[in-house]
Design goal:
Elements (H helix, E strand, L loop, with lengths): L4 H20 L17 H19 L6 H6 L7 H20 L3 H4 L2 E4 L2 E4 H25 L17
Antiparallel strand pairs: 1-2
Length: 160
C-alpha cells in the first residue's frame, strides 16, 4: 500500500513507462488479433490499458478530466502513436491531481467494489489493474510473433 504521494507518483510514472513500451510494441496491423472468441482483440486490450485509468480517476476518485483529454479517449485510434498520446494525456492529468494532494489524503477511507479501503488503496488497485492487462498484452505480442519488451526484468527477446 502507498504511504506517500511521492511514492505513488514515482510508481505511476514507472508503470506508465512499462505500459507505453508494451503498447509501442503492438503494431496496428496486429490490432485485430483475438486469441479466443471471448477475448478482446489486441487493439481493444491496448485501448483498455489506455482508458482504464479514466474510470478509476473520474468515477472512483472524482477527478474530472478536461474535455481535450476526454476527446482523445472518445474512440480507439488506429495507430499506436495516438494511443500513446492519449495514455500520456491521462497520465499528465493524474500526476497533476496527485501532486496537489498530501500523504494524509492517501489514508482517507473509501470503498472499492463493496470493500473498505483507502484512496491510496484505490490507486493501488488501479495499478494492479494496469499490470494485469499489460501482462495479457504481452501474451498477445508473443502469440503474434512480435517482440515482447522486458517489464520487471528482461524478456526472452532481450539479448543475453
Amino acid at each position: 500500500m502507498f504511504t506517500s504521494i511521492q511514492g505513488v507518483v514515482a510508481e505511476c510514472i514507472a508503470e506508465n513507462e512499462l505500459t507505453r513500451g508494451m503498447i509501442e510494441a503492438l503494431p496496428a496491423e496486429k490490432y485485430a488479433y483475438r486469441p479466443h472468441p471471448k477475448a478482446r482483440t489486441a487493439g481493444e486490450l491496448a485501448w483498455h490499458l489506455v482508458t482504464g485509468r479514466r474510470w478509476f480517476l473520474e468515477e472512483l476518485l472524482q477527478w474530472p478530466l478536461p474535455d481535450a483529454v476526454k476527446l482523445l479517449l472518445a474512440k480507439p485510434p488506429a495507430a499506436p502513436q495516438h494511443m500513446l498520446e492519449a495514455l500520456d494525456a491521462v497520465m499528465n492529468e493524474q500526476l497533476g491531481h496527485l501532486r496537489a494532494k498530501d500523504d494524509f489524503w492517501l489514508r482517507e477511507e473509501a470503498e472499492f467494489f463493496g470493500r473498505a479501503t483507502t484512496l491510496g488503496g484505490i490507486l493501488y488497485g488501479m495499478l494492479k489493474h494496469e499490470v494485469h492487462h499489460r501482462g495479457q498484452l504481452s501474451v498477445y505480442l508473443r502469440a503474434t510473433g512480435m517482440r515482447v519488451p522486458g517489464v520487471y526484468g528482461g524478456s526472452a527477446d532481450d539479448e543475453a
